[in-house]
Amino acid sequence: MYEEASQVANDAVGSIRTVASFCAEEKVMVLYKKKCEGPMKTGIRQGLVSGIGFGVSFALLFLVYAASFYFGAKLVDDGKTTFSDVFRVFFALTMAAMGISQSSSLAPDSTKAKSAAASIFAILDRTSKIDPSDVSGMTLESVKGEIELCHISFKYPTRPDVQIFRDLSLNIHSGKTVALVGESGCGKSTVIALLQRFYDPDSGHISLDGIEIQRLQLKWLRQQMGLVSQEPVLFNDTIRANIAYGKEGDATEAEILAASEMANAHKFISGLQQGYDTMVGERGVQLSGGQKQRVAIARAIVKSPKILLLDEATSALDAESERVVQDALDRVMVNRTTVVVAHRLSTIKNADVIAVVKNGGIVEKGRHETLINMKGGVYASLVALHMSASS
User: Boundaries of each ABC transporter domain copy (predicted)?
Assistant: First the structure.
């Protein structure tokens, strides 16, 4: 119960600028108080039970003292026992009563420990369908980057009633750039999630260099891929540490500098007062959108991935930042198999293949020049909408 209230407080503090800009401080406080009502009622009830229990246990202890002395004195007076025997019995009863009273006061703590242990064991006993720590599976000596999605059908486990893909097939050739376009929610980003094996398809298969990715070692598979997403997550550490994070093991200074140069990031990083030792702040708050994106690109490059996954990598940027980031991406995409998810024409028009995703499948496929000239085509209508929105 307290966890929900803590989550509200955590979100409010973490997004204090948003809260302040909407003058929502009072709303957050009301929401926090509302979330605390349940724990408060439970706490009062527990307090009353614990207090009464504690009082009763001590009352019993002193009542046992009184009863022991009373009956002991009576028996000594009647000559049925001796003074020393009375004290032997008294201490035996006293120690027993004290043990009972102390154990009763520990009952709430034992209940908490029991529920905590049960939740921990439930987590430990839970087996993941796709376990990243599993070292079984094949690894390839060299990766060409030939990807095939064959008759893929897929629904998200949390939304089993929504069919995302119906018999989707797509070939992505080695060293080529394939752009996925389509309306929001059509499943473009889902393709990237399936390639990284965050999910497995319900039917059909995905292969890398002719081998199904389920047969490959998961950790090795993800090491072959570099991801740059729309909202890159940077850790509250130095720029150097955030770039080095992309490579398993320790990245050398030369590798970090080379990745930064390729990502168009070295110039702006060198211009910072502390250079590569600059702290980026929580979620990279100290850097602008374009700077964060270039650090994320450098992080993806530092492990020299054979496959590059770009999920709306420039959609949140202004025109100038987009130009710089797109220039960095164009450098990085050379001789790499690249899957691009994007809306902007500038990002996708130079792709080797543009695949239009609609109704759970690929409805059009080809180069920009070919698709744009298809009268009544889905891609042509998407470009026309984009152009009219831009103007």
Answer: 147-384
